[in-house]
Specification:
about 20% strand; 6-stranded parallel beta sheet; Rossmann fold; about 425 residues; Dihydrodipicolinate Reductase, domain 2; alpha/beta
């Protein structure tokens, strides 16, 4: 089995990928890239690979593939550059930050002929893989309604620790943008696509004791309503509310299924109320499924097994020359739901189309749509990161955040 020489960009999240690019999958880590030299020194001593702070120099290394785990809003430009250099790419979420980036990324993947995989790991959690199996077997009939939730509550200490610097993307990214963890499992299970979007944003409350101890200027959470291409309706909920958890619920014409909210949340509940169809037993069951393949390897990996399957399917796609299920089209489709939902929320929750970038017509329409909320590159007509407009962190919040950053060794602002 020919080795796939891999380089990883971004060693905060990317270190997990770096350690997972092992011999069992025929992947060999040969280089890493990060802007912080201290991280590079740690990885160089642990893994014995080449290290770079310059991305262009990194791409000159003898690589077959690049795994992008850099900042959330910078993936598309890095991916396009790697594809142009003849490398296969696996990109962390989001695939793109603006609609124009989505168009450019799709076009570059097609032009390059290289493999592009969207590294959305939540579909590959064991309960989502089981629900995909059940759905494809016809156990709940046709998909008509679904809910996906990614609620991630954290203390101010932890929020500040993962967001070092006033302009770190986590401190300003709008609440709708981090939507792929809630949407991807539904698209994976049902193989449907979003065609329209309506967004609602939940602003931070002054009663929240966490937000006021951070440098954050965005909103707390969001609800997104989608119409899918088969007519089904989907509700997504994300991110910073109390009640931490990941949950997927699907209703079909002949039954309903979900992972459990309480207890062992990997367990699946399948319910089939039967009225005019042939009786099938059991009508209601709760059980812990196993992964359909590579169970032992997946159970040892991060994110509920999802991290193993990201590397696994990326390697398989490179070897076969066939684009993976989570290809550039699905990656971009679920990523652009975020900015479109925010645009909807700012327009009084108007319903907007989700363009299909598999077709050139919609690409031409959005090829120059660089509307974005990044405060460091703000232009006239661009939105602020909060539905309340321009928000500034409190003096108390900044002081608290900077103290956390100082203890971490972060020397920036």
């Amino acid at each position: 089995m020919k080795r796939i020489r891999v380089g990883v960009v971004g060693l905060r999240r990317g270190l997990g990928f770096a350690r997972g690019a092992g011999s069992a999958l025929g992947m060999e880590l040969v280089a890493v890239c990060d802007q912080e030299s201290s991280r590079l020194e740690t990885v160089e001593s642990e893994l014995g690979v080449a290290t770079y702070t310059d991305y262009d120099k990194f791409l000159e290394h003898d690589l077959d593939a690049v795994i992008l785990a850099n900042y959330f809003h910078e993936h598309a430009p890095f991916a396009i550059k790697a594809l142009s250099a003849g490398k296969h790419v696996m990109s962390e979420t989001a695939a793109c930050f603006t609609l124009a980036e989505g168009v450019a990324l799709v076009r570059q993947v097609e032009k390059s002929g290289k493999i592009y995989m969207f590294a959305e790991n939540y579909p590959y959690m064991v309960f989502n893989q089981e629900m995909r199996r059940l759905y494809k077997a016809g156990e709940i009939g046709e998909f008509v309604y679904g809910e996906g939730e990614y609620v991630h509550s954290m203390s101010a200490n932890d929020l500040n620790a993962i967001s070092p610097g006033v302009h770190h993307w986590r401190n300003w990214i709008p609440a709708t943008y981090y939507c792929t963890h809630s949407l991807a499992p539904i698209m994976f299970i049902t193989e449907t696509w979003p065609v329209s979007v309506t967004g609602f944003v939940i602003a931070r409350s002054e009663d929240d004791p966490v937000w006021g101890l951070t440098a954050r200027v965005n909103d707390a959470a969001s609800v997104i309503i989608l119409r899918m291409d088969n007519g089904a309706v989907v509700k997504l909920l994300q991110v910073g509310l109390r009640g931490d958890g990941v949950w997927v619920r699907l209703h079909g014409t002949r039954g309903q299924m979900e992972n459990l909210r309480h207890g062992d949340t990997r367990m699946v509940r399948l319910r089939r109320e039967q009225y005019h169809e042939e009786d099938r037993e059991p009508r209601d069951q709760i059980y812990l499924p196993e992964f359909p393949e590579h169970h032992e390897e997946a159970t040892r990996a991060g994110h509920g097994g999802g991290d193993f399957f990201m590397n696994y399917h990326f390697a398989q796609a490179i070897r076969t020359g066939k684009q993976p299920f989570l290809d550039v089209y699905r990656g971009v489709a679920m990523s652009i739901v975020g900015p479109l939902a925010y645009r909807s929320a700012l327009a009084g929750s108007a319903t907007l189309e989700v363009p299909d970038f598999r077709r050139e017509g919609p690409r031409r329409k959005y090829a120059k749509d660089d509307w974005n909320p990044d405060p460091t590159r703000r232009r006239e007509g661009d939105p602020w990161p909060s539905v309340r407009g321009e928000v500034k962190p409190s003096k108390k919040g900044l002081e608290y955040a900077r103290e956390i950053w100082r203890r971490m060794g972060y020397e920036g602002d």
